Amino acid sequence: MSSPLRPYEPRDRGALYDICLRTGDSGADATGSYAEPALLGEVYVGPYLAFEPGLALVLDDGMGAGGYTLGALDTRAFEDRCEREWWPPLRERHPLARHTPGSADAGVVALIHRPARAPDVVVADHPSHLHIDLLPRWQGGGWGRRLIEALLERLAAAGSPGVHLGVGVGNPRAVGFYRHLGFTELHAVGDTLFLGRSTRP
Prior knowledge:
Helices cover 39% and strands 21% of the residues. It is an alpha+beta fold. The protein has one domain: Gcn5-related N-acetyltransferase (GNAT) (Aminopeptidase, 3-Layer(aba) Sandwich). It is globular, with a radius of gyration of 16 Å. The two termini are 27 Å apart. It comes from Humibacillus xanthopallidus. GO terms for molecular function: acyltransferase activity, transferring groups other than amino-acyl groups. This is Acetyltransferase (GNAT) family protein. Residues 65-201 form the N-acetyltransferase domain. Pfam families: Acetyltransf_1.
């Protein structure tokens, strides 16, 4: 059997948005939390598929996509491009007053209007960043590690010295997973912990 790990294809977009939603509550299913189910994908998946599709990797065993990792080679350049090209049309479609204050949708819309930028201390030595999400049936079998290793190889080949990611401090399982893969703490802001590692083994 061939490996289920493959490069992203444009037909995967809807499935990856769905995975983002189904893992959007610190790894648990957030489907019931959003009036507009595509919102999470618009923030955490869409710009990567649009601007850096060559760094997107998918797990697919023939039954549909079940996980992915996404990356940006240069975080600052990626943030700037999103500000120019990705966020403006989303802000028009999702005005701040559109959703009930305090709702999950309102929280994501606030991010669209005021996107966070990675701290300078994080990107100084770890200019790339990644996102990874796997549905439950893909968890625990080493596929998360394989996805990240495959992305690290691509980042290293493109000249990146290091990669970072953000994880909620209230998600100790995820923090432990990344530490096991060689990620170390770089910085903490609010409830977000930034972890990073070299792109080299």
